[in-house]
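This follows on from our talk about sequence and fold. Please put the record directly below this note.
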Amino acid sequence: MPARIYDLHGVRILECAADGPILRNSGDAVAVIGEALAQGALLIVIPAARLDPGFFQLRTGIAGEIAQKFVNYRRRLAIVGDYAELVARSATLRDLIYESNRGDALWFVGGIDEVEKRLALAAGGPD
């Protein structure tokens, strides 16, 4: 399944396919950002399975490296997946997810429905 481009609550979204290449470093992030820029997308949705497993081991620095690229290019990032097992093993990751989800640049969500709810709320719609 290829990436999808669509609008939700006035925000252009690039939703990456689950079966695409793994993002391992900032160069891989820039490739996705380039696709988003070409499509005019401000929010990129990436399945957690598309991220190198080291992304969730914060000591590797991969998460910071990749997230910083999205910030530099002023693109928001929503990572879709189930984080229960990962946060059970890492208080630091749990804290990162909690703090990120309080902001607007990086979200860790369970599904695209959570992205839709967050955008609706930001647009002044119902919860």
